[in-house]
Description:
The structure holds 2 protein chains of 2 kinds. Chain A is an alpha+beta fold. Chain A has helices spanning 2-10, 12-29, 34-61, 63-99, 264-271, and strands at residues 109-118, 123-127, 140-143, 146-154, 159-163, 170-175, 181-185, 193-200, 210-213, 225-234, 238-245, 254-257. A 6-stranded antiparallel β-barrel of chain A has the order 1-2-5-4-3-12. Chain A has a 6-stranded antiparallel β-barrel with strand order 6-7-8-11-10-9. In chain A, strand 6 (170-175) and strand 7 (181-185) form a beta hairpin. Chain A starts with a helix and ends in a 9-residue tail after the last helix. Chain B has helices at 2-21, 35-47, 49-67, 70-84, 97-122, 130-162. Chain B starts with a helix and ends with a helix. The chains are: A alpha+beta, B mainly alpha. The interface between A and B is medium-sized, with 27 and 25 residues.
Amino acid sequence: MRKFFTLFFKHNALLLFIAYCCIALFFMKLEKKDTFSKLQTSGIEFSAGVNEKLVNLTSLLNVDKENERLMLINRDLLIKVLNYETTTVDERNLRIILDTPTFNASGFTIARVVARKFSERENMLVINAGWSNGIKKDMTVLVPEGLVGRVISVSEHYARVMPVIHTDFKVSVVSDSSNCTGILSWSGGAESIAHVEHIPISSRLKLYERMLTSDFSTFAMRGIPVGKVVRIKPDKLFYSIDLRLAVDFSSLTQVLVAPLKIEPEKMAMSNDSTLIEQNP
Amino acid sequence: MTKKISFSIIALCIVTLVQEFGFTRLALFEAFPDALAVFIAFLAVTQGQRTSTSFGFAAGILAGIFSGNLGLHTLAITTGGFLAGYFHSPEDSHATAKQKTRRFYGAVLTAEFASHTMITAVYNPLGLSPEYRIVTLGLLASLLSLTLAFIANRLILRKTFAS
């Protein structure tokens, strides 16, 4: 007995350690029980609550940095949203052009209007297709709704287009019902109204007739819609005709560029009268 | 004696809170200094093995409540306290302050490495290799705790060891 107590007092630290380990193992075994799990969840609840308060305090001290960080995130998100919206709109407009049932867009080059210049007497468009895309000078630019203009200069990736609403632009037009031909021009003012000249008073042109490009044009292919007659005012020998243009130039995004209209013989015939005698 | 024990219990609670909400945020490669190991080591050097084992048990319960692994932390820190108790410097040993300080550092290393190894052997939340966790992270944690012990010795404990 004495030896036992001697041993006990000598190794009481070790015995205490063993007792504590047994209790700890007992805790580990009972950890899944309700009582202990409640104790654990309470401890976690307290710990998480204090941590949250500390985090809130820290964030309160760093409000400026946090605001700056959020502003940068906002900026990036806004750029992404704008890009997505722009892409969606472009895709929709492209679909409109390609899905128009009465218009065969194959063989035409699709381009996007990337810049436009508007002033009281001058309008110019820039499209994102150049000679690397097969674009050449004097090609016709159109949309399914109607004629847009004419390519006047070309670079590798871009081309400048003189639109119908340009003071130097002229095109030969013909009415679809009465076959009256004239020359379309635009003299400034309203974007949607152009004028047709050289239609004689004897013609049977009526209001709301559609005007199309005629075969007389040196650059535009025949049959492209141009507009609708909205006013006929008789003059001495000719009518003064106002045409409401078919194309809304303020909402142009996607355009088509038609292949070049090459008729060298016709050009030669138009320019040189001596050629007439060579054909028996 | 009762006053000493009460003071130690209050100090234990404060150290546990500081460890749980302070030092765990100072992680370096997933290892952080252990204020509890420093406290237990101090008790081991000054009070003896029974005190350090008992306080290791209590510290383990407190740490386990906060972490969610009650049994594992109790076992680990109790073991650390027990092993640190071997560095006890009896009052009649006439050990110098320097010798007590060295024992204190030894106790810190032992307590920290032992408790870290025990926890690592059972609980592996990141799926790291045992060798990496036990050797690399264990040594790193011990080093960080040793740094903390050095700072604590310089600021607070030097007078206690000297007396």
